[in-house]
Amino acid sequence: MTAKLYDLELSGNCYKVRLLAALLGVPLEIVPVDLAAGAHKKPPLIDLNPFGEIPLLVDGDLVVRDSQAILVYIARKWGGERWLPTDPAGLARVAEWLMVAENEIAGGPSDARRHDRFGYDLDVAAARKKARRILGLMQIRLVQQPWLALDRATIADIACMPYVALGHEGGVPLDDYPAVRAWVDRVKALPGFIGMPGL
After folding, report:
1. What tens digit of pLDDT does each residue of 92-109 get?
2. Burial class (CB in 10 A: 0-12, 13-18, 19+), 88
3. Cβ-contact 98, 68 below 8 angstroms
4. N-term to C-term CA, the chain
5. 64 contact partners, CB below 8 Å, separation of at least 6
6. Same domain, 57 and 96
7. Range of the structural domain that residue 183 is part of
């Protein structure tokens, strides 16, 4: 049975799930969700996920919400040690960057894009300030090594890349962060890579 992904094409969080599945050759049944009509806040979606958010993955009887959690599930089920190691140190390194995706990147480049591209009422100056801070930290990290967590691409890179690469849609271009730009290009060069609008 093919897993089902409730999806929005322009969502970076939905895209990261589609991207990992593509890199692993995992087929997904994509179910577009009409966010503008509030479909994510109505049955059947609200019954599957009381948080009223997407992406949402349904694999048989299992329902997994939150893009980072879905990445963990897909990586462990289909990706093995390559994408999410089980050794304590490797797992911790990946988890650090999953938290960055959920916090600094979500509150920085993602929020700036939500303001500029989709008209959300939020403090865009604060979002851009947060974006510059995390991009600076990523620049330092990616000067030292080619991937965020380990010596290879992991779900840490998949979790962090979309909203960083889409930063230009929120007034946060990557011009001043050459190592970050090079890392985005490395992700794009992975076998099986798929894109999304704006990327």
Report:
1. 999 999 999 999 999 999
2. exposed
3. yes
4. 31
5. 56, 57, 58, 70, 73
6. no
7. 88-188
Under DSSP, is residue 17 helix (H, G, I), strand (E, B) or coil?
helix
Closest CA to 97 of 115, 80, 72, 77: 72
Question: What confidence tens digit (pLDDT) does each residue in 50-62 have?
Answer: 999 999 999 999 9
Last residue within a domain, chosen from 28, 47, 82: 82
102's tokens: 């959920």
On whether both 78 and 107 belong to a single domain, the answer is no
Residue with token string 């589609």: 18
In this structure, are residues 4 and 32 in contact, taking their beta carbons and an 8 Å threshold?
Answer: no
Sign of CA dihedral 51, 56, 57, 61: positive
Identify the helix (H) or strand (E) that includes residue 63. strand 62-65
Strand segments (E) across the chain: 3-7, 28-32, 56-59, 62-65
Type of residue found at 188: K
CATH of the domain at 78: 3.40.30.10
